[in-house]
Amino acid sequence: MASVIGCSPNLDRVDGSLMVSVSNIGSDVQQLRIAVTMPELGAERTYELIASGPEQSHIIAAIPVGAVQVQVFAEGASGVVATGARGGLVVPDQQTIVEVPLLEGGPGAPFSTTMVVEFGAIRPGSQSPLEAAKSTPPDDWSALKELIQQRFSEDALLVRATMATLRLDSGASHEVEKLQDLWRGTVTLSVSQGDSEAVASARLGEDSATLDLVPTVDNLAAAFNTNSPAPQWTLSGDPAGNSEPDHVGYVRATVTVQVSRQ
User: Fold this and answer.
1) CB 225 within 8 A of CB 145
2) Where are the domains of the chain?
3) CATH H-level superfamily of 1-106
4) Nearest to 207 by CA among 170, 179, 188
């Protein structure tokens, strides 16, 4: 059974397909509730499945392309006994697989989830260092806070960014085919909220449309306050080449966020 929130018909939209693969399903789980959020559209779909084993998949044959956030709630006789969350990017005419391992335990158990931050209209060589800034999408920030409220009742929590992956949106970009068309050397993603800051960086290779960033040790435990406004993200690096007015790149950062008790 599926329900859709916030969707209106769009005859011009482009679809892909999505397979949600859930693992670590305990023997006490009776039902899986899968919530798929599409931040770019402000829409959410919910699916309810009867649990049938330690691993289970659900295929959504048609779903709009773009970033998705997948949350899975495993329900037993006593309520939610495990949860999991992962992000993904649906592309046209292909099947995207999002693997969601469940974390044992209901309320109070630590968990990881993802947020997608989009950096748009980055023009090569237009700044030195080339830099783009973006707020955490309100839908992602609200979803994170809601998930935290479901799992924790206290305020003494550690919310930290533990990893990020940059991906060039080749469909939206113009005359920019790889991250090296925007930057050279090291690319840095920083996130700040009040006095807290986390920094992740990595060195670009050759001809890459994706790049994994790992936070530096000193900033790994930077905490974010979910009672405050959404964090600010900055993406920077040394510009590659000269500025061309018709060259523009769009980059998505998928950020893994870990939540636990302090």
Assistant:
1) no
2) 1-106, 109-262
3) Domain of unknown function DUF4458 (2.60.40.3540)
4) 179
